[in-house]
Amino acid sequence: MEFQTIGLIGPPNVGKSTLFNRLTGLRQKVSNYSGVTVEHRSGRLRGTSKTVIDLPGVWTLTPSSEDQKIAVTILEGKQPHLPRLDAVLLVVDGTQFHKYSLLIGEVLARKLPTMLLINMADELEQRKGYIDPLAVARELHTPTTLISAARGTGMDAVHQWLKQDHSPANVLPVLQAGGNAAPCAPNCGDLTAAGAYRRPQHSTLTRAVDRWALHPVAGPILCLIFLLFAFQVIFRVAYPAGQALTNWLGDLGTRAGTILPDTILRAIVVDGIWNGIASILGFLPQILCMFLVITVLEDSGYMARAAVIADRTMGRVGLNGRSFLPLLSAYACAVPAIMATRAIPSKRDRIATILIAPFMTCSARLPVYALLIAAFIPARPLFAGPLGGVVGLQAATMMGLYLAGLLAALVTAMLLRSTVMRGQASAFAIELPNYRMPRLRTIALAIVDRSKVFLKQVATVILVLNLIVWFLAHLPLHNGQPSEVGSSILARIGSLIEPLLHPLGFNRPVGISLLTAFVARESVVSTLSTLYNSVHPGDLLRADIGMAGALALMIFFALAMQCTATLAVVRRETNSWKWPIAQFGYMTVLAYVAAFVTYRVALMLHL
Ligand SMILES: Nc1nc2c(ncn2[C@@H]2O[C@H](COP(=O)(O)OP(=O)(O)OP(=O)(O)O)[C@@H](O)[C@H]2O)c(=O)[nH]1
Ligand SMILES: [Mg+2]
Question: Which key words are in the record (predicted)?
Answer without folding.
Answer: Membrane, Transmembrane, Transmembrane helix
